[in-house]
Amino acid sequence: MTPVRLFLVDDHQMLRDALAARLSLAPGVCVVGGAAVHDPALLERMGGSRPDVATVEIGHCGGDPGELLGRLAEEFPHLSVVVLTDRTETDLAVVAAKAGAIAWVPKNSTIEHLVSVLHAAGLGQGTYPAVHLGEVLRALRDDVRRARDRSGPLDMLSQREREVLASMVDGKRRSEIARELCVSTNTVRTHTHKILTKLGVGSSLEAVRVAVSSGMRPAANARPRGHGRQSCDGSADGQPVRGRNGARPA
């Protein structure tokens, strides 16, 4: 069995350290890192660790627990997120599921149960306690029904997917889109695949045609492919920023 690469997200360092030590003894689990929920470098640390699964204590997230889970799902599309929490509210479980959490584990669970859930999450299998599962499934079913009732084909897309599609309509390459959205090209590739699947088309060109026929238009300042685009650091098409006289900044 290939070990599940695990990243622990919890504000309590003692708990993270103790859990990492205990899980290091469990078969099929490799703890590759950990960080606090509000660590400014959380995404960077997680990206450098390349985990398959992350446990997250959403009780430390503040006002909107779904925001962090959504960011993780957006930045790491192939990451399985397991909520490991001492919170018991079913409405929070619903928020977590809608934001992409594949599993929910109470902190009073046994280590054996946690390990079992981690192994399942590594295989893409979800696990929610029976006390929450009914409401979670109802909420997800209602979301699907509402999405089907919408009239436009683009309404099935998430906000980020619409941004990627709009950039495709503008004629931007995948690398340009990645720079402008400050994500990796792999993330853009994953969003593009989801766009094609949701629109029921087989190519990016077909997706652009659907977008245009649905009313999406190129931006006023859109340029043909090959022209410069501003990246996250202010450079154009990856070229270094220069001063007015053409010199590189010191």
Automatic annotation (TrEMBL):
GO terms for biological process: phosphorelay signal transduction system; regulation of DNA-templated transcription. Transmembrane segments: none annotated. InterPro entries: CheY-like_superfamily (IPR011006), NreC/VraR/RcsB-like_REC (IPR058245), Sig_transdc_resp-reg_C-effctor (IPR016032), Sig_transdc_resp-reg_receiver (IPR001789), Tscrpt_reg_LuxR_C (IPR000792). SUPFAM superfamilies: C-terminal effector domain of the bipartite response regulators, CheY-like. The keyword Calcium does not apply. Keywords: DNA-binding, Phosphoprotein, Transcription, Transcription regulation. Gene3D superfamilies: 3.40.50.2300. Residues 5-122 form the Response regulatory domain. Residues 150-215 form the HTH luxR-type domain. CDD domains: LuxR_C_like, REC_NarL-like. It comes from the Bacteria. GO terms for molecular function: DNA binding. Residues 215-250 are annotated as: Disordered. The keyword Transcription regulation applies. PANTHER family: DNA-BINDING TRANSCRIPTIONAL ACTIVATOR DEVR_DOSR (PTHR44688). This is Response regulator transcription factor. The lineage of its organism: Bacteria, Bacillati, Actinomycetota, Actinomycetes, Pseudonocardiales.
